[in-house]
Amino acid sequence: xxxxxxxxxxxxxxxxxxxxxxxxxxxxxxxxxxxxxxxxxxxxxxxxxxxxxxxxxxxxxxxxxxxxxxxxxxxxxxxxxx
Length: 82
Known about the structure:
The protein has a two-stranded antiparallel ribbon with strand order 1-2. It is mainly α. The protein has helices at residues 12-32, 36-41, 47-68, and strands spanning 3-6, 72-75. It contains 3 helices and 2 strands, in the order E-H-H-H-E.
């Protein structure tokens, strides 16, 4: 009977979440230190801040999805004689 093992850190969802999270963190920091003149160019909306927060929310949802529904990989058991 094959055992089952979680894919863990090799799950592509974790890699995607990490990359989006890094970009989201950078955009959030840039949005927090943005000058008002730059915000006024975008009709008064701090696009970097809202975009960064959206990316961070996406990251949290992806990590939750990966943790709550992990990918299960069957592991074949081999005999000692092979």
